[in-house]
Design a protein that fits this description.
two-stranded antiparallel sheet; MlaA; signal; Phospholipid-binding lipoprotein MlaA; 301 residues
Length: 301
């Protein structure tokens, strides 16, 4: 067996063994930004603070503390489609505008994913965070982001974004060499080359391809038909498949998946617990975000 295979297998075995150890309850909801200066209003807010879900629903930014630092969440407020009937309640009008013809399938997959997250991925993430300190996880995330730069390069070329494609190439060359296989990001720190991420779904959106119906994928979570093209292209063109061979490829992809999910695992737990109907809450936030992004991309430069 290859040395890399042994090391990776041992690493994953260690994570699995530590997965049952609970992480400290470090999630708290931040105070509402820009509170009124009136002492009475401040005391009322302190006595009855809004939950993270309530803050987002009311259009306020909220901050959730995780073991990897504070995560600031911007609300995907306002449904930007026009309302045909002004007398229709706002929540019902928004509901009619959501493209969810696959709700039966989506709810089933959402429930399946919640079980998988709760009993497999989230415990594994906690074990991952227990074993590795923040700084190490940050470098691992940098390395996987660097590996995906060629994919962004191809998608930027397909979108006609030649300058961004050049940025992808420069970042990949610099971070793969000076940055020691992408563990560090001198391209941003020293050469002023910030990330220029681009997926196939982003490219299609640039060509005014409709997002299509809302779609919840097994394990991979919420998406839409357009966004699912990024999943397919990511699997078929995954650079890890080009530079490694099984079973090393599967081990590295597993670590990548756990590292990626660790950024949002605790946020997911917190918001799921606070939502009256978690499926509708996460769906509405996602679809509003898609509308917001599409509207932004259509703005004249």
């Amino acid at each position: 067996m290859k040395t890399a295979t042994v090391i990776t297998a041992f690493f994953l075995f260690t994570l699995s063994g530590c997965a049952s150890k609970p992480a400290p309850p470090d999630i708290t909801t931040a105070e509402i930004a820009q509170q009124a200066t009136d002492p009475a209003a401040e005391s009322a807010a302190a006595a009855d603070p809004l939950t993270a879900t309530e803050q987002l629903s009311s259009g306020k930014t909220t901050t959730i503390k995780t073991s990897q630092g504070d995560i600031e969440i911007q609300p995907t407020v306002v449904d930007m489609a026009s309302r045909d009937d002004p007398e229709t309640p706002e929540d019902e009008a928004a509901e009619q505008q959501y493209n969810d013809p696959l709700e039966g399938w989506n709810r089933a997959m959402f429930s399946f994913n919640h079980v998988a997250y709760s009993y497999a991925l989230i415990p594994l993430v906690k074990g991952y965070e227990y074993v590795l300190p923040d700084v190490v996880r940050s470098k691992i995330g940098n390395a996987f982001s660097n590996i995906r730069e060629p994919l962004s390069l191809l998608n930027n070329l397909a979108a006609g974004e030649v300058k961004d494609a050049g940025t992808n190439l420069g970042r990949f060359l610099i971070n793969s060499t000076v940055g020691i296989l992408g563990l560090f990001d001198p391209a941003t720190a020293w050469f002023d080359l910030p990330p220029a991420k681009q997926s196939l779904a982003d490219t299609l959106a640039g060509y005014n391809v409709s997002p299509g119906p809302y779609l919840v994928l097994p394990i991979l979570g919420q998406n839409n038909v357009r966004g699912s093209t990024s999943v397919v292209s990511g699997v078929l063109l995954d650079p890890l498949r080009q530079i490694t061979s099984p079973p090393d490829t599967y081990y590295l992809q597993g670590v990548d998946a756990v590292d990626t999910f660790s950024d949002r695992a605790r946020v997911y737990e917190k918001l799921y617990q606070q939502a009256d109907d978690p499926y509708l809450y996460f769906r509405n936030q996602f679809l509003q975000g898609v509308k917001r992004d599409d509207a932004f991309n259509k703005q004249p430069e």
